[in-house]
């Protein structure tokens, strides 16, 4: 287990390092920097900007230094929790973030749990009741869930809730808690609002997961060892839980590697539509305003979220499957 | 690849009564040179080439065939959008803003007069500040077919004014209603098909080239190239696609011309989407490069590019086509999402995602639900590609 963990952690560090370069390059891509835009704006308002002040600001933000140095400063800051400075709001990025990261984490973890809790019994049912009415019905629903892009689902839900209940289901908490400090009431309010975005973001992933679990289990159900166990008189439920289910669980856990990036992508766009106080709207706003340290912080956070999630899933998989931890190979 | 030998036709013997240990011997003399005679259909099946067998297998997959037909229909719309749309792109009717869809009727006061629409009367509800359109059922206006209507340039080159159907003389034909600017949603949907369906194709072409090149090199050459490519694939796959797409498209300057922006967006979609394909190519090549015919080609002095392109790729081209088909929906959805968020294509370019930006705020959606129709188009296209891809994946290996 030890060597495997070290290798896996090394890969995670490498991934994050490459990602940070990638993110830095991407946020530097737009022609000009925020300062140029800012000065243009000031000029357009008829304000005189003395060149000394421009130079001072440039130096202040380190924009005059070579890109490699800028990257090192930025990446070094990330390591110690300094996310840079928001030009648009004139505050450090940290001050801007507030609960955003926690809420994003809550939404995504809740969605992963939702996907697993829903997909597991349904996948089990459809595999053991193959070609029954329930199987066909659920498979059809799954196809619909797969084909409906989550942001369209969000729109449809917004429309229906407005039509039927006359309320908006946007947001992640009641308005009175928006800027309030954390309290029991706020937590309850978040939990109350959480289910709509979780269902919206998780539907496609759930549908995919059900199909995969069903296929895996169907493969296992007809193996000779199942026949042997049945011949020996093992009761059906015990048989299912003891052998095929354990085999089928491996891909189920390993699949978080595909699931997580998909869910995070989904949560970004859904939160922009449903105006959830998570990374989505903030990232969108920062990208539009070329506020690139904010955008960089959001992108890095989302990447860290998926990469750590995959690390956890790989470790779980190694615990489940001795072949992986003994072979020292990567879970691919 | 040769098809497996068919089992010889069973020889029927008269059963020997009361023999519990029946043992039969064929009484016919053994002729080692005799050719097996097969039924004609079976013989044809044995001689069929790879692609014919793929087609036979695909044909049995009903849903895939239907989806294929739907996709052919969509691409016909791509080709002939100008002719099929009753209005030209950018035509605005400022007297009909947010007009609801007009229904096509066939029977007027008990009399059959062919497809027609009723004209709509516009009133402004001053209390609710809502535009009200009421159909005027006294005067039916027959729809014109094969007619000359608003002029356009076919494919931006040939000026013409021929339409499959046009609005009645002095009337309007808004089959899916109109939007904020009074543009016909149906016509825009057809023009949007052109952009949305091409984005998928061009994007996948880019991702295909990158994926096959990198995956091919990694799988065929192995060694450090393989390690580097594998790490790249792992890193890219572990990152969420959409935020990266968003950040990259936000870097495309607003001032660039719509065509350039269109190509930039497809390039961005393709640049991030290749790892899946590269991985498939790599694992296939890893298995295939040990085959004897590869060694033969190498001994005859073929370079890697030739061995991969001429000898290895054709071996799993049907698998490749299946995975390409399955990755197109992701591109279409990506473009739709980006345009919807205002980071992708922008008006005057019309795509399904651009049209859906109108449906972004809840007021518009509740008051004018027909603004959501492009959603149906997106879902149909995505489902069709998925079903066809599933069918192709099953048919890619027709030898079982």
UniProtKB/TrEMBL annotation, chain A:
CDD domains: TM_PBP2. SUPFAM superfamilies: MetI-like. Signal peptide: none annotated. The keyword Acetylation does not apply. It is a multi-pass membrane protein. Residues 101-313 form the ABC transmembrane type-1 domain. InterPro entries: BPD_transp_1_N, MetI-like, MetI-like_sf. It comes from Roseospira navarrensis. GO terms for biological process: transmembrane transport. This is ABC transporter permease subunit. It is found in: Cell membrane.
From TrEMBL, chain B:
The chain crosses the membrane at residues 63-85, 154-176, 197-225, 245-272, 365-388. InterPro entries: MetI-like, MetI-like_sf, OppC_N. GO terms for biological process: transmembrane transport. Keywords: Membrane, Transmembrane, Transmembrane helix, Transport. This is ABC transporter permease subunit. One of its GO terms (cellular component) is plasma membrane. The keyword Glycosyltransferase does not apply. It comes from Roseospira navarrensis. The keyword Membrane applies. It is a multi-pass membrane protein. It comes from the Bacteria.
